[in-house]
Fold each of these.
Amino acid sequence: MAITTLGQFIIEKQADFPYAKGELSRLLRDIGIAAKLVNRVVNKAGLADILGQQGDINIQGEVQQKLDVYADTQFINALKMGGECCYVASEEHEEGVDLSANTVSKKAKYIVCIDPLDGSSNIDSNVSVGTIFSIYRRFHADRPIQEEEILQVGRKQVAAGYIIYGSSTMLVYTTGCGVNGFTLDPSIGEFCLSHPDMKIASRGALYSINEGYYSKFPQAVKKYIKYCQEIDPATSRPYTSRYIGSMVADIHRNLIKGGVFIYPQTSNHPAGKLRLMYECNPMAFIVEQAGGKASTGTTTILDIQPQTLHQRVPIVIGSKEMVEQVESFYL
Ligand code: P6P
């Protein structure tokens, strides 16, 4: 079977955008290049002295792993040099990074929200980590960037994707015309189409949640966990519990096998832990495009009007019927 690289695929699919003049295609290719650079370092993390804590504290108050910083730098540099992105909102920066002054084309019309290395607390234990990105189009390319252009509702995303640096490295993305997965072939240094037109099963037998916080969960979630553990062969219960603690890895597995991932609000995270702009919105866009669903338990993720850049939201995401089952306990 002929190999289709990410670059070839993006060009072939450009026809999906009647008005596109190739900028989004170039932007996606810029992200692919940075992903390869990050992959090279993540794969060798145990070898280089890059492991361990750099000691800086990012705005999340988490000790920044050197790889976080490296990944953030690679993606921002690739976007700056590519010239198609005018503004980057990154988990690693309290304020966004305005590239409009020094992008090659002053008329860059895309905004990127990114979590450069999600799950980085897992790096030392060699657990899969990931990058999550979300792309919006700005309203006016001829004036300073406005907050309303950055805090757009998730439904307005023009593209979203993730890279999972795992047993193999994959890039999965959507531009609103379905979801496609590419596996990195290190021997040729190319992401090759390996999972065309990905779809998530309407129901599965996996549930992913950190049950250690059980006592702090809302009643609806406690009821759902009990539901998962009941014996009912007709609905494949009891379900299997699978929780990696790396959002990209947990959601990617559920996308492939069917299942639901839940990070609800808890008494110490009243708005949940995961961030709307660069974790929940992009993953919700991808999962919805694959036929799944994503909500807070009561509100569709993609319809939430963002208030702040690093806003957190609760999330229930995955197989449609399983998300709806969780939602039924919130009623
Ligand atoms: P907890 C990783 O730190 C992360 O941001 C997500 O990748 C992951 O889903 C979540 O936090 C895990 O959080 O509280 O279960 O350790």
Note: The longest helix spans residues 23-43.
Amino acid sequence: MADIVVAVDGPAGSGKSSVSKAAALRLDFNFLDTGAAYRALAWYVIERGVEAGDPRAVVDILPDWDYHIGVDPDTYAVHVGETDVTEAIREPRISGVVSSVARVPKVRSHVNDMFRDIMRRAPKDGIIVEGRDITTVVAPDAPVRILLTAAEEVRMARRSAELTTENAGDVAAQLRKRDAADSRVVDFMTAADGVVTVDSTTLDFDQTVDAVLDVIARQT
Ligand code: C5P
């Protein structure tokens, strides 16, 4: 059971996954990427030939969705059944439908129960959990809660640089669309009471990791 839960929220392209993972490695903590769970469900929805925009059909297949995510930042991998989907869930076809799946309330309560169970079983002293509603819904009592932000143009530029094979304009448009859809479901752009904002607009990767580690050190 992890004693220290560090909740990190933020929009797409804020660097929260890579920063949270790097911080977890530095602290020898576990790490949970909750977006990967929603992506793995979107992958399964497509695999089963279900219409992602049909909430009832998505909820119907939830009991069959056999999902495993590693919480060790060194060996992080995501599986659905026996299939390793770690790479596949990053494909644009998944990013394009994940918001439709994630906005279904029964999906959210199902995955939130899973996340809390994973947090309870995490073997290391601490776990960094990152997503969109961790500071507010999944772990509102976490001793450390951080909102990781960056100016929109910086987030778009970072994400486009990651996906070199794609058209940067398309990436920015898809990211904007996804942020708009997601923010209708949860507010991840403003810090809730007691949540510390780390703005990475003018920070490089290492500086952002240091800023997050600094907040953790001050609050634990
Ligand atoms: O963080 P990432 O971009 O991989 O998240 C993929 C999607 O999962 C988001 O666009 C959002 O629809 C959903 N998500 C969510 N709540 C979370 C984490 C992710 O709704 N806590």
Note: The chain has a mean pLDDT of 93.
